[in-house]
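For the sake of transparency, this paper describes our internal protein records without simplification. Because each token names a local backbone shape, the row as a whole describes the fold. One such record is reproduced below, unchanged from the form in which we store it:
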Amino acid sequence: MMNFSGILIGVLTFFLIGLFHPIVIYAEYYFGSRCWPVFLLVGILCMILSVRMQEILWSVSLGVLGVSCFWSIKELKEQEKRVAKGWFPKRKVDKH
């Protein structure tokens, strides 16, 4: 019998990395890098849930999601630098 778990985990990891790229851009644009605690809390929650899951695919999925959240904290700082260099647009805030 074939085991497709590795392929599913690989596809999930690829999907989450691709999904978090625009999430980081959006979060930095609207909230700046000060929203990093949200990524930290979600990452910690995912890690706690991951170790409590009996099903390996759920455990790995939550683990990958948690690590993606932790990595996003670093990427928020990097995105801030990319915006400062003019590589991405900076949000214009109305002062009305």
The two ends are 65 Å apart (CA to CA). Residues 56-84 form the longest helix (29 residues). The helical segments are 5-31, 36-52, 56-84. The chain has a mean pLDDT of 91.
